[in-house]
Amino acid sequence: MIYELDELDHGIIKRLSEDGRVSFAELSKCLHVTEKTIRLRYKNLIDKEILNVVGIVNPIALGLKAGAIIQIKTKSQALQLVIEELKKIPPIRYITVTSGEFPLLVQITVRDQEKITEVLYAINAIDAVTEVNTIIQLDVHKNTFEYIR
């Protein structure tokens, strides 16, 4: 179901995307409504699964300095099966179905090039995978979680 958000909802989401720890009191001041209104709107956004407030890890600070975008071709009619198998590989943090020559794209962030190789072996071990194209990320210049309307 698609929900229509009003300006207040957008304001709450935008502010929380900038600082997930901002207080309801501060939100109410900057958005010019009562704290109770903020609490109710926040609960509604959470309950409807529109908003999920989480801590975002800086992978570089944890020593995860190598990354890759991996394009994957599969046997005919095996796309969903491959997706389920990819979900089991921990370093894969993003899986999407795409248009074009490679119907799947995954992204990984790992400690080093050796770990990229391990992930590639795991992907190639999936029986229905027919081809893999790997794009090594040399330097990331922007990786944001800003709220965009």
Lay out the secondary structure.
Blueprint: H1 7-18, H2 24-31, H3 35-47, E1 66-74, H4 79-86, E2 92-97, E3 104-110, H5 113-124, E4 129-137
Antiparallel strand pairs: 1-3, 1-4, 2-3
Short descriptors:
149 residues, alpha+beta, Arc Repressor Mutant, subunit A, Alpha-Beta Plaits, 2 domains
Concise synopsis of the structure shown:
The protein is an alpha+beta fold and 149 residues long.
Describe this structure in words.
It is a single chain. The chain is an alpha+beta fold. The protein folds into two domains: 7-47, Winged helix-like DNA-binding domain superfamily/Winged helix DNA-binding domain (Arc Repressor Mutant, subunit A, Orthogonal Bundle); 59-137, Lrp/AsnC effector binding domain/regulation of amino acid metabolism (RAM) domain (Alpha-Beta Plaits), CATH 3.30.70. 36% of the residues lie in helices and 21% in strands. It has helices at residues 7-18, 24-31, 35-47, 79-86, 113-124, and strands at 66-74, 92-97, 104-110, 129-137. It has a four-stranded antiparallel β-sheet, covered by helices on one side. Strand 2 (92-97) and strand 3 (104-110) form a beta hairpin. Helix 2 packs across helix 3. The longest helix has 13 residues, at 35-47. The protein starts with 6 loop residues before the first helix and ends in a 12-residue tail after the last strand.
